[in-house]
Amino acid sequence: MARGPGDAVGETPPGTSRIEWVAAVLGGLFVVAVVAYLVADGLAGRDRLPAITVTATRIAPVASGYAVEIGVENAGDTALDVDIRGRILRDGAVAEESTVTIAELPGQSRRRAGLLFTQNPGDALELRAVGWALP
Amino acid sequence: MARRDRLSDASRPADSRSDGSEGSFAIGLGRAFVGAMIFGLPIMLTSEMWTLGFSIDPLRLALLLGATVPLLVRLSRSGGFRRTASLGDDIADALVAVLVAAAASAAVLALTGVVSLDRSWHENLGIVAVQIVPASIGAMLAQNQLGERDERDDEEVYEATWSGEIFLMVVGAMFLAFNLAPTGEIVTITLQLGGLQLAVLALVSLALMHAIVYALSFSGSEHPHPSEGFWSVFARFTLAGYAAVLLTAAYVLWTFGRFDGLSLADGIGMVVVLGLPGAIGAGVARLVL
After folding, report:
1. CA spacing 20 to 30 A to A61: which of A24, A83, B25, B161?
2. A16 contacts in B (CB within 8 Å)?
């Protein structure tokens, strides 16, 4: 029992206990922090476009050929249905092409995906995002 | 309604209610947690809400969260975890409800793998934040529905005021609108209905609302004063209430960005479609809240 000195006993409704005030202050801080963050994010991000970079993180042989594991990072605003294209370029010509679509790519997020090729892409791999939809 | 069907004082175990102590606060917290789950789970486990968490306009979400606190404070006046003596207590309860709502949402979404370390914290925050409104309303109502009835409610005149009635309708409408506004079905339904069908839908919503609250003798429903005519009750409560429902539906749809890229006619249609569950929520709110 942590009854404050001001708390009445008996007929009048009870006051708020110290522990509840602690929880209330935490709740208040949470609301203020989240709202402040959202406002800052909202003001900074007016009319911002998705900013997508694609990097190959690993190349591994699989049953059908080679799998390239890619990391897709979005430093801008949320994008949906992001098409990623990987091409193997040899002697200035496209030797092989593969695509993957990422359904959701939120702002400030990273997703992993994979592209499959029949030949080992080695150093001849070109990766890029070719399109997206906005929410 | 608490003031009508409360438990009798004799059935109340002595000293088990809120008395400002840590023990009863823990019980209240537990109830709030359960309330947040019951009211929040359907929305927590809706995939459109997760997408909204990171695609919603941050400023609109900030406005929504900012508006939630005063809404909960007002709701605390009419129910809440415990009987409250002062505005300070109501504010404390409202802020605790927000905290419980955030904790319950984060727990459920983490357990289900929606919120995870694979996502950036920016995403996780948004996904939890959009859940706070329905879950905190649930947390606030938990004591009303799961806990013991409050003898003090007998004396509260709050419920009887016109603005109090409309406020409860708005909360009920907002809760149901939150459940349905994010779904694709609302758009599909809007696009397949013609103007005449939408007009019928609006009239049916209005009739349902009036029937639920005033015509049917549910426990807790309003019993208008005998001297008050049908049209007076209809205009002051049902019609005004339905207008509040439509405004609430429009606000929720706007917050979720559902009007973006839609024509004005389709936007109005969507408000009317969402007004059907909203009107039922508003009607039932008077019975539940």
Report:
1. A83
2. 20, 88-89, 92-93
